Amino acid sequence: MTPHRNAQAAARLFKTPIQRWTSKIRLFACSGAVGMMALSAADVGNAATLTAAARGWHGTAGSAVDAPTVHTTSDQPQQHKRQNVLLIISDDLAARIGPYQADVRTPNLDRLASQGVTFDRAYSQFPWCAPSRASFLTGTRPDTTGVYNLWTPFRRKLPDIATLPQYFRQNGYFSGRVGKVFHQGVPGDIGTSGPDDPQSWDMVVNPSGRDRDAENGRLNDLTPGIPYGSALTYLADDGEDEEQTDGKVASEAIRMIEQHKDDPFFIAVGFYRPHVPEVVPKKYFDLYPLDRIKLAYETPETLAQVLPASKAWTPDNFGMTETEQREIIRAYLAATSFVDAQVGRVLDAVDRMGLADDTIVVFMSDHGFLLGEHGQWMKNILFEESAQVPLIIRVPGTKNAGEHSPRTVELLDIYPTLTQMAGLPHYNRNQGTSLAELLADPDSPSWAKPALSQVNGGRSVRTERWRYTEWEQGKDGRELYDHAADPLEHRNLADDPRYAQVVSLLRAMLPPGPVEKRMGSIGYDAARDCLLKPLGPRPDKADIDKPGVQRPCDMIDP
Length: 558
Prior knowledge:
Elements: H1 3-14, H2 41-55, E1 84-90, H3 107-115, E2 117-123, H4 129-138, H5 142-145, H6 164-170, E3 174-179, E4 203-205, E5 220-221, E6 233-237, H7 245-259, E7 265-271, E8 278-281, H8 282-285, H9 300-304, H10 308-311, H11 322-352, E9 359-365, E10 370-371, E11 377-378, H12 384-387, E12 388-389, E13 391-394, E14 403-410, H13 414-421, H14 436-440, E15 451-455, E16 458-462, E17 466-471, E18 478-482, H15 500-507, H16 524-532, H17 541-544
Parallel strand pairs: 1-7, 1-9, 2-14, 3-4, 3-7, 6-8
Antiparallel strand pairs: 2-12, 2-13, 5-6, 9-13, 10-11, 15-16, 16-17, 17-18
């Protein structure tokens, strides 16, 4: 096979768009039995080397990328101040919002999507709060940050790295934070800076609302005995939006934008919902009648196929009844609509202040959230619902408003994207790739990059068609899913000999070397015990900073 055809073969692994979220995404058929590429063993190795060298996703620092400029509605250069950046982060929000064709009411995010580009295949590098945020805010992979739990600070391993907000600050921007941006325990750290990164900011605001102390016996707890920040709990609360923490986050964000509207600013707004406890005003619960809530589609046969390693820290459905499952799904949807309303308030303020033409807006989540799919709940799992995230980017004047990109992207791509779009020098420690190419052409045929995600014990690589995962380098199992035929990930093809070539090519894309131990590796019973016991005091910093120390119960959210 010639090098040109070899590159085409590798590209076909990435470029097999499937019809998932929009009718614009094409369905391609691969030739050959079971829809695979016809690759020889040599071709597999060469293709993997070719694509790895092209994108450098094994953790090496990225180099400057000359991506095309986003086309605007004016052919004349804009004569105004530098572009502001408004980064809006929702906590634990899956790609279960209106722009992704989900049956949930999110009119403000729908509006934002109509004005920007929605990325249909965006993935977290570690679907758990602290590791994910450390990754995308430093623009580096979890194996670079060294953050695999909720306690280890990324500056232990990266003392001199410039975070995304810090880099803008160093380049003359006002840098401000409202709410949860770096990791905070929920609800324990609400109203405090928690384990923040002070050198990233010129100003921080830590709002706290009535939901902060909602544990005074009023919560509906569907998983009794599990630590509060990880329990499936909810409350249809009294009062108005502005009395809740996220309502106050929106108000303080608007105030900060108003104060700095004449300066180039980088303002990060971090909402706490839909992270549990799901405490939001009752009117949002009323949007979703309980008898209309649908459960995840699973059967005894599909549940039996789930590898123990991929679910070790979460017992199936926590023993909840179907009614209880509907209750927490309803609460999650209510919290999603509540966050949408707060996002709308901030976006309305940007418009009202006349800043829309000068402000890049990014809406994202730190990771997804399972609601009973595969019998699992919450996060820290590599299934699609946990690893995929919503990502919408609005660049002033774009000609691609309302478009969807089917290309596979990563959260760590946000850092180099924003620096490039703001006209700042490329930061050479970034390990992501600027999305400017896809903002200019959402269907760009030259984009051929996989997405890597990991949790303790497992690593995944995703292309537009495939997801391949190894647990403990394959010793605890492997997974391969064909999203073109099996978008719900119910049929594991990893051990099917007909797919050996696909497995070989995808496996070559995974970083080499061992992974941090998963809680399941200490035994399922011990993992379950950690879920059912109170956390107690935080680990001593001297203990958690010791290389290689992994306390099993550190896996639970505070």
